[in-house]
UniProtKB/TrEMBL annotation:
Source organism: Actinomadura alba
Domain of life: Bacteria
Example GO molecular function: methyltransferase activity
Entry annotated with the keyword Glycoprotein: no
Protein name as it appears in the record: SAM-dependent methyltransferase
Length: 274
């Protein structure tokens, strides 16, 4: 547990009961990203996946770089000042509010998650970085998009553009059409000029599929890998921002001044609501 988190708990906020014997999705991802908020069971599950699909560690870190580039683009080039980050996971380096408020200090960010552990960390670590901006969180499940929209409306002005973000979380719902319905509900609630940002793992290699099987064998929550063609349908009715849906290391890599990217079984895109 980090010092900031320990101070938050000591200050009187109740800590959720933590099962350290069962692998936890957010903690496994934290481990792959090089974080410290994980336990032996999480590391064992993470290592089991990495043994057959070592690129998972690169994927975890590239996913954060994709988030950074996408948020910078939205704040600096698209002029977006409101961000709805759904399924945020455990805070790590360069979170959405930090990136957005560095570019535009008046940015408002609403994080959404339904995991008690994530929310505990959010209270301690997702702290506003500028006097002008707003950073807050909502305790909600993305299967209840109406609640998310209602709660977000307490902070965000839904008459102005919003960047809606689903970063590597949609595979927790196996029903493809249900995911499309969730996305449709949230995007219908935001105006023209809003954007959808999403990435997810893809079934584009045998090793990544085997890695998913190892995750389940280790006690982790199953995660559905979809094809790039299926992911593209998440953006139906929206206008893709160049370069469209691509492996996440390839999305606007040039704006970060980075050279050739490793190809990964993870695709992402940013798309604008017309």
């Amino acid at each position: 547990m980090t010092d900031d988190l320990q101070r938050s708990v000591s200050a009187g906020q109740r800590s959720p009961a933590i099962d350290v014997e069962t692998p936890h999705a957010a903690r496994i991802w934290n481990y792959w990203m090089g974080g410290k908020d994980n336990y032996a069971a999480d590391r064992a599950a993470g290592d089991a996946v990495a043994q057959v699909y070592p690129e998972i560690v690169t994927m975890a870190r590239e996913s954060r770089h994709f988030l950074i580039r996408a948020v910078r683009y939205l704040a600096a080039e698209a002029g977006v000042r409101q961000f709805l980050d759904i399924g945020t996971g455990l805070p790590t380096m360069q979170n959405t509010h930090e990136v957005a408020q560095q570019v535009a200090p008046d940015s408002k960010i609403v994080y959404v998650d339904n995991d008690p552990l994530v929310l505990l960390h959010a209270r301690a670590l997702l702290v506003n970085t500028t006097p002008e901006g707003v950073t807050t969180y909502v305790d909600a499940d993305y299967h209840d998009p109406e609640q998310i929209v209602a709660d977000a409306a307490n902070v965000l002005n839904l008459n102005l553009p919003v960047a809606v973000m689903f970063m590597g979380v949609l595979g927790y719902e196996p029903d493809f059409e249900r995911i499309r319905s969730i996305l449709g509900t949230v995007m219908a609630a935001v105006p023209s000029g809003s954007h959808l940002v999403a990435w997810d793992g893809t079934d584009t290699g045998e090793a990544v599929v085997e890695g998913g099987e190892k995750l389940v064998e280790s006690g982790g929550v199953p995660y559905v890998l979809r094809s790039p063609e299926q992911l593209a349908r998440f953006f139906d009715g929206l206008e893709m921002v160049e370069p469209g849906l691509v492996p996440i290391p390839e999305w606007r890599r040039e704006i970060a001044g980075i050279g050739a990217a490793e190809r990964l079984d993870a695709y992402g895109a940013v798309a604008r609501k017309p």
